[in-house]
Amino acid sequence: MSSDLAAPMPVLRPMLEMRGITKRFPGVVANEDIDFTVLPGRVHTLLGENGAGKSTLVKILYGLHQPDKGEISFDGSPVSIGSPSAAIRTGIGMIHQHFMLVDTLTVAENVALGLGKPLSITNLGPIRRRIREVAEEFGLHVDPDAYIWQMAVGERQRAEIIKALYRNVRLLVLDEPTAVLTPPEVTDLFATLRQLTADGRGLVFISHKLNEVMEISDEITVLRDGKVSGHTTPAESTRESLAMMMVGRPVEFTRTLSEQALGEPKLEVRNLRVRGDRGELALHGVNIDVRAGEIVGIVGVSGNGQRELAEGIVGLREIESGEIALNGKLVRTPTPKQVRSMGLAYVPEERMKYGSIGEFTVAENLVLVDHDRPPIVRSGLLSLSSIDKRSKQLVSDYSIRTPNTSTLTRKLSGGNIQKVVIAREFSGNAEMLLVAQPTRGIDIGAAEYIHEQLLIQRSQGKAILLISEDLDEVMALSDRLVVMYEGSIMGRISREEATIEQVGLLMSGVGEPEGAAAG
Amino acid sequence: MVPLAAVVAALAVGAVLLGVFGANPITGYRALFTGAFGGPDELAATTLKSIPLMLVGVGICIAFRTGVINIGGEGQIIMGAILATLVALALPDVPRPILVPLVMVAGAVGGGIWGAIPGALKAYSGVNEILSTIMMNIIAGFFMSFLLEDWLIEPGAIRIQQTKRLTQNADLPILPGGTRLHLGILVALIVAFLGYLLLFRSSLGLRLRAVGHNPHASRAAGMKVELSITQALAFSGACAGIAGAVLVFGSESHRLIGEGGPLAFTQSAGFNGIVTALFGGLHPLFTVLSSYLFGGMLAGGISLQRAVQVPQALVIALNGVVVVFVVGSLLLRARVQRWAEGDVQMEGRA
Question: Strand, helix or coil at A384?
Answer without folding.
Answer: helix
